[in-house]
Amino acid sequence: MQEQALQDIAAASTLEALQQVKTKYVGKSGLVTRELGSLGKLPPEERKARGAEINAVRAALDAALTEREAVLRRAALDARLASEAIDVTLPGLSLPAGGLHPITRVYDDLIEIFTKLGYDAVEGPEVEDEHHNFEALNVPWYHPARDLQDTFWLQDGRLLRTHTSPMQVRYMVDHTPPLKIVARGKVYRYEATDATHEAMFHQLEGLVVGDGIRMSDLKGTVAEMARGLFGGSARVRFQPSYYPFTEPGADFAVWWENPRGESKWLELGGCGMVHPNVFKAVDDLREAAGKERIYEGKTGFAFGLGPERIAMLKYGIPDIRYFYANDPKVIGQFRGELG
Ligand code: FA5
């Protein structure tokens, strides 16, 4: 039996098979165990020798079982390690890396230019009231300029701001001059979209207020911005224009030469000297809030421009609608280092 058992143990190729062999011989009702149990039936003089013999078998089997189990455990572990082994020389999986949206890049460039010129960068609410978006900017309800900027109205009478100019009013009510700020953010207009017009777009508003601020300061500032954006040889053009909140008002454009050798005037935005009625409206709001009237008699300039137009030229994007269509073919080009 011992010989047979040792053969069985050696032949067990898995831990489960070994367990079966173990049960068969030394389990509760195994062959060896039963032999031990039947000792009592032997005559007393034979028991001792027989018992010693069976115990020797048992010990031999236990030793063989333990040894075999160690071998099989080691093999099972080796097999598992082999199945989990990785080839560290294989190329890794690349995780998709994000990148800054082209509009964010243009904003970052603009904010850097103006921060160097000593401006503070601020932000304000997209949901506005009529007073800040229109009235305080010298656009009363009957003014035809309201039709120029078709408005998304909210049910509570408020609206989605149609430009960032209400930030001029908000900032002046809370701060004392002299001041220099740029305000960035989304604006909304209820209008048909085309290659250069979106219903949601962005603006950067600039405002400088102090004593003796002149139109030439405005022109110099816009020219400095254009050089910062497009290089030292950038040319800027001003054309008279009308904005109710400026007097005088102008539109400005930069002469743009793209890498393909094409060049044209790029309309960037509107600007002008802050209209006295705006200062008056700000003082009215300050007075209502228990603050001093300090803006009447001040001078200042303001400008507002659209970063989409800059990004379209800078990155050769032909249609403004690509910016917000979530098309990975377009936006994916701005991953990682590019741009
Ligand atoms: C204004 O919004 C004035 N608030 C700008 C201003 C500020 C003038 C301060 C004077 C003083 P306008 O509606 O022209 O002006 O818009 C300014 C710029 O926003 C445009 O030059 C253009 O670059 C951009 N823009 C206007 N409408 C759209 C549109 N639908 N989609 C994309 N960009 C637009």
Structural overview:
With 339 residues, the protein is of the alpha+beta class. The chain has 2 domains: 2-83; 102-338, Bira Bifunctional Protein, Domain 2 (BirA Bifunctional Protein, domain 2, 2-Layer Sandwich), CATH 3.30.930.10. Helix content is 42%, strand content 19%. The chain is built from 12 helices and 9 strands. The strands form 2 sheets. It has a 7-stranded mixed beta sheet. β7 and β8 (263-274) form a beta hairpin. α2 (15-26) packs antiparallel against α4 (44-84). The longest helix has 41 residues, at 44-84. The two termini are 82 Å apart. Adenosine-5'-[phenylalaninyl-phosphate] (FA5) binds at residues 163, 165, 189, 191, 197-198, 201, 203, 205, 243, 246, 249, 267-272, 302-306, 308-309, 320.
| Rounded mean pLDDT score | 91
How many beta-strand segments? Answer: 9
The structural domain count equals: 2
What is the CA-based Rg, rounded?
42 Å
CATH class of the largest domain: Alpha Beta
Present as ligands are: adenosine-5'-[phenylalaninyl-phosphate]
What are the secondary-structure elements, in order, as H or E?
Answer: HHHHHEEHHEHEEHEEEHEHH
Spatial strand sequence of the major β-sheet: 1-4-5-9-8-7-6
